[in-house]
Amino acid sequence: MTFNPIGIIRSPYTDKFGIPRQPGLVTAAEARLELLPAFAREEAFKGLDGFSHVWILFVFHADCLDAGWKPTVRPPRLGGRQTVGVFASRAPYRPNPIGLSAVEQLGLIRDARGLALRLRGVDLLDGTPVLDIKPYVPYADALPSARSGFATPPEMTITPVHFSAAAERDLVLVDPDGQRQLRQLIAQILAQDPRPGYMNRYPQRREFGMQLYNLNVRWRCDAAGIEVVSVTPSADK
C-alpha cells in the first residue's frame, strides 16, 4: 500500500515542544491545510461547509518515519514514568506513524499560495503531511459513555500567565496588527504547561523556551505562575 499526501499543514508550531497534547485545547492556534495541486479543487469540498469540525488524518513526519517502533511507550499523561502498549497510546512512534486529529474547520481560501482549508485548535506541527480529510459527525463520532483508560480528563487548573513589560513591547514589534493572535496563542499554550511530565523532578529549572512561527518565546516559572520574558525573531529564520 502506498499513500500520497493531499496537502501540507502550515501552523504556528515550528517546533514539537509547545504543541498541545490534544486538539482543541488551544483555540487561538489557527492553521492552513494547503492542498497539493492535484487535489486543489473546490468541488472536492462541496458540502463540507455544513460541518463545523473535520478529522485530519496525517503522518508523524518529524523524526518518526525512519525511527522504528517499540511495543511499549511512556505516555506524557502518565508522567513519562509508566509504560503502556503502543496500541493503547497515541504515541507518534508506531509501526505506521499515522495520527488523526479532530479540529474546527473555518472554510476554504484561495490565494497566491493556492487552495487551503482554514483550521482552528490544531495540534499539528508545521509541515505535517495530510493523507485525508473526513467530516466529524457528532451522532456517530461523539461517544459520551466511552471509557478513556489512563487518559482521564485533565484537571481544570489553568496556570496563570502574565507578560513582562519587555515581552509586551516585543509583541507590538512582532505582531503589530494582531493577525497572529500571538498574545492569546502564547497564553493558551503556556496555561496548559507544555513541559514534560518528568520536569517535576527538576524543580530548580525555572526558565524555558519554545519556538512559534519564526519566533523564540522565553518564559520563567515561579510561585505566581508563568511570566513570558521575551518574544523575539529566531536567528535562523
Automatic annotation (TrEMBL):
Pfam entry (one): TrmO_N
Matching Gene3D superfamilies: YaeB-like
GO molecular function, one term: methyltransferase activity
GO biological process: methylation
Keywords in alphabetical order: Methyltransferase, S-adenosyl-L-methionine, Transferase
Domain TsaA-like: residue ranges: 3-145
UniProt keyword S-adenosyl-L-methionine present: yes
Coiled-coil boundaries: none
Record InterPro entries: TrmO-like_N (IPR023370), TrmO_C (IPR041369), UPF0066_cons_site (IPR023368), YaeB-like (IPR040372), YaeB-like_sf (IPR036413), YaeB_N_sf (IPR036414)
Similarity comment text for this entry: Belongs to the tRNA methyltransferase O family.
Designated name of the protein: tRNA (N6-threonylcarbamoyladenosine(37)-N6)-methyltransferase TrmO
Source organism (scientific name): Chromatium okenii
Gene: tsaA
